[in-house]
Design goal:
The complex is a heterodimer of chains A (573) and B (624).
Chain A: H1 2-5, H2 11-43, H3 48-96, H4 100-106, H5 108-133, H6 135-150, H7 157-199, H8 201-206, H9 210-262, H10 268-310, E1 329-337, E2 347-355, E3 359-364, H11 370-376, E4 385-390, E5 393-394, H12 400-406, E6 407-410, E7 419-420, H13 421-426, H14 434-443, H15 447-451, E8 460-461, H16 470-483, E9 488-492, H17 500-512, H18 514-517, E10 520-525, H19 528-531, E11 536-541, E12 544-549, H20 551-557, H21 559-572
Helix pairs in contact in A: 2-3, 2-6, 2-10, 3-5, 5-10, 6-10, 7-9, 7-10, 9-10, 14-16, 20-21
Chain B: H1 2-5, H2 30-40, H3 45-88, H4 100-149, H5 152-157, H6 160-202, H7 204-211, H8 213-251, H9 253-258, H10 262-314, H11 320-361, E1 382-389, E2 398-405, E3 410-414, H12 422-428, E4 436-441, E5 444-445, H13 451-455, E6 458-461, E7 470-471, H14 472-477, H15 485-494, H16 498-503, E8 511-512, H17 521-535, E9 539-543, H18 551-565, E10 569-573, H19 577-581, E11 585-590, E12 593-598, H20 600-606, H21 609-616
Parallel strand pairs in B: 3-10, 3-11, 6-9, 9-10
Antiparallel strand pairs in B: 1-2, 1-4, 4-5, 7-8, 11-12
Chain lengths: 573, 624
Amino acid sequence: MFKIARGRINSWQVLGAVIFMIFQVIATLYIPNLTSDIVNKGVITGDTNYIIHAGIEMVVVSFITAIAAFGNVLMASQASQGLGRKLRSDLFKKILYFTHDEFDKFETSSLTTRTTNDVIQIQNVMIMMLRMMIMAPIMLIGASFMAYQKNAEMTKIFLVSIPILIVIVGLVMFFAVPLFKAMQKKTDRLNLVFREGLTGVRVIRAFRQDTFEQDRFKDANADYTNNAVKVFSIVAIMFPVVTLVMSGTNVGITWLGAHYIANQSMQIGNMIAFMTYAMQILMSFMILSMVFVFVPRASASAARIQEVFETESKIDVVAKPAKVKDEPSLSFNDVNFRYHGAERLALANLNFKVTKGQALAIIGGTGSGKSTLINLIPRFYDAETGVVSLNGTDVKALSTEDINSRVSMVPQKAILFKGTIRDNMAYGKEGATDDEIWHALEIAQAADFVKELDGQLDGEVEQGGDNFSGGQKQRLAIARALVKDASIYVFDDSFSALDFKTDLNLRTALKNDEKISQAVVVIVGQRISTVADADQIVVLDNGKMVGLGTHQELKENNKTYQEIIESQLKEGK
Amino acid sequence: MAEKKTESPSMGHGHGPGRGPAIVVKPKNFWKTSGRLAKYMSTYVVGIVVVLALAIASAVFQIKTPKILGQATTEIYKGLMTGVAQQKAGIKINGLPINFDKIEHIIFIVIMMYLASAAFNFIQQFVMTRISQRTVYKLRRDLKGKMERLPISYYDSHSNGDIMSRAINDMDNIAGTLQQSLTQLVTSSVTFVGIIWMMFTISWKLTLIALATVPLSLIVVGLIAPQSQKFFKRQQASLGLLNNQVEENYSGHVVVKSFNHEQESIDEFEKENAKLYKASWKAQLISGIVMPMMNFLNNLGYVFVAMYGGIQVANGGIALGDIQAFLQYMNQFSQPIAQLANLTNTIQATVASAERVFEILDEPEMENTKVDVPDVQTDDKVTLDHVKFGYEGNPILLEDYNLNVKPGEMVAIVGPTGAGKTTIINLLERFYDVSGGSIKLDGKDIRNMSREQVRSHYAMVLQDTWLFTGSIYDNLKYSREDATRDEIIEAAKAAHVDNFVRQLPDGYDTVLNEEASNISQGQRQLITIARAFVANPEILILDEATSSVDTRTELHIQHAMERLLKNRTSFVVAHRLSTIQGADKIIVMNHGSIVETGNHEELMAKNGFYADLYNSQFAGNVAL
């Protein structure tokens, strides 16, 4: 918790919060002192003027307390929210530069939670700390000091009440905290089962598993309820006992006080003040004990955040990156690759080379490694052995930034961002002209529906591109990639969402485009028709390259390729 | 936010940090819903009466004690004053003449009261925890049970998010309130009235002075609350935008990266982040200064009471112990006010929550009214006889539709996206019932069978690859409980599941997580297919099931299917022509209705919608 706050929180503001808090505590502690003075010097002697005088002093001190409290809140708010801002910012930056490996490791939803909810947790605990938790020790010390001054003998009473408090609170925590943790898990389980009942309603009913569902939920529900009853029963002990200890302390003070006053070793006003101090001391203890509740909660969040910060990118940052050459080409030499921690190679022994103006197609079944192959080009992953070369240079010698400026990718899943069409196209090329954008849209067969949009290029794209159909999204994603000036254009199964006709038009337009025809085009596909006119076709099966050649060659002598054709011929003819 | 948490001894429920002050939702019918909620607790009526009695008793004792303890102070003071007077009169004394017997007596009473109060309080909470948790347990159970009896049309017309929020958030609200707020409401009210009463019994003048600060506090709250709301709203809005940005950029990181767009994304993020910071620290500040200001006002009251009271005591008009007690009452006084103010919001929100839960419980359930359609002797497996159907409130989609499916026949359902191809499946599985005509299974109207009976004849593979959180093995077994391990493995092999499952670290015991992100989409699809194989049904329904499996895998599956489909009737919603062409009957759909029915040759000869659809798929297929 403190680790991630260090260097990110404004220490001046923290210091300010502490100083204001000290003032606030001193002023707060001064008030019982004044009360005792009113009793001792005013009430007992019947000095009305003194009472009024002390009263005015009290108002002033209260005012100072309020001002100090304001200062503390101001500093605490800025410091805690500032910390949140900095954490969010650092996390976002760090995560945005994560590679695929790290995204695989954490999963997107978990990273989102870490950047949003976890940071908010930290923020909340931080403001509580700066406002209440630092108050507790200061108050504790101050009140103890004041109490000791009023009557040193009587402070012995705390030797009884404080240990009792600690034991009680400790016991409750000891039993309750693990149960609270378990409760979180049980809540999750309850939600999960209920949600699955919603999302799977058709399947559940079709397989007549309603009873199984009800039982599953009943178990989760009972489990949760039993746990909750246990937790809250334990917690129920705390409040009454703590109140009892505090009240008992008051009683003790009165009893001892009576004796001290009787033998004239204490003034009666001091006894009243002592009671107030006693309450402040015990309250501070209670607040301190809350540290044990809130800090673990926050430290779980802190640990999750820290885990992100400590994750080092698997891709080695090239110290002195080479500069990418201009002549487009792509080659794989004896490339092997396996996913992190996997037993089996995901790609084995890949060899091929494509040069300027050529198209390479990759075909194969699900899980054959098509997308994996593609991911090696922009160094989303690095090859285990062998060399992937971009424009004649080993990609491992290049910075990812440089690679990305040369490789234009259309991922399998079309991803659009909230904004306008133009904003999305500008991803491909900062400050692209309208002509360039329209040209790319034409090739991508997207110009027609963009023209019909309200505002055309300024037409709105909702979050995730939800206002477009799957095929439209895909075409926009293709257009975005085409706006970019690159050496290599990669289409990762981008055409499968398109109907045959659009697919054909798009590929024809690609072939005839001046810019694209000077580059290397890599197409991953499942349809024979999509890949057939490529200059070279890589046939993948189970991560192995089982064929390389043109459509004609493969059709004649490659068994896997023939199988694929056969399966599609059945549709086609 | 922080200060609201501190008073609650419970840590689990209530508003979590980060939500800001809850925006109050008003229930539509407060009393009716409250009454209904009360009915849920009616089995515990004895317990509740006990709880309330104990809560009141505990509060009363707690209120009485300061005044009684104050009497002890007064005794000390009396002794002190007498002693001082004696000393002044020149009498030599060994100690002040304090009446220790009386003080002892007072202290004994006070301790008894404290003990009783604590014990009552504990018992009260102990019992209430059980009552509230069990009540919510029942409510949850009933809700889940209700979900089983609701028709599919309910699921289709309500978003999962909405239902979830009722089942989770609203349920949480109810649990928290039953546990805490109910007794708090009683305790706070009793304490509030009790404290004022006790204050009046000490001195009505002091009480009026003390109460004078109340309107001031109200003004402060009235001024600050709207401001604070404003900033919290702004903070919420900013947070929402920021969360969207985070999600978008993380899920689209491939694109962000490959276009070297990191810096631009960061710049945009920082802009929103700065806005959020501005709104949130102000929100925190404004909500944070309420407490110090209230304290200040409270202190003002305290000072005036101390001054006036001090003078009174000095003049002998009031006992010192009374002032001491009075000051304690003043300190306690603001607590129940704040609590009651919070409670009105909490309770309103809870009743609104209960209302939303009850709304689901009140939804009409599925009915199973038998129809007067006689059984017929037929060799059809499935018969659609003059079927008429339309979704409720929507136009009629099917009118006078007839179809006879013989055992072992394959029926393909085709049409463009959004043509309503699932409608037929909805009817066959009795997710929806026909509005006219009859659907028969083996000659018997399916409305004259139970839904379970109908469904026992089918197995289904949906496009949405739903698997539950559990092991792969359990997911396969899901479709038929008495399936043996061998049968399951065999089915897995037939669906090409066995191979990849064995490569997973835990094999068949691999637990699929909620999004089943530990296996690929295609593999999930295969598992759902295997699950249908395990079911070994008479009739198979495939809803675009093979569309996310690539052609080569599909080829394998088709071989396996041909084997498994033998002597089995099937309905297949398909895009793939290979499936369609082999079908005995093809149902062609468009805009929700059936436009043509027949086999491939018939439909091609017709040269209608189907022929159009079919030909368009080959327009681009040049290279073959």
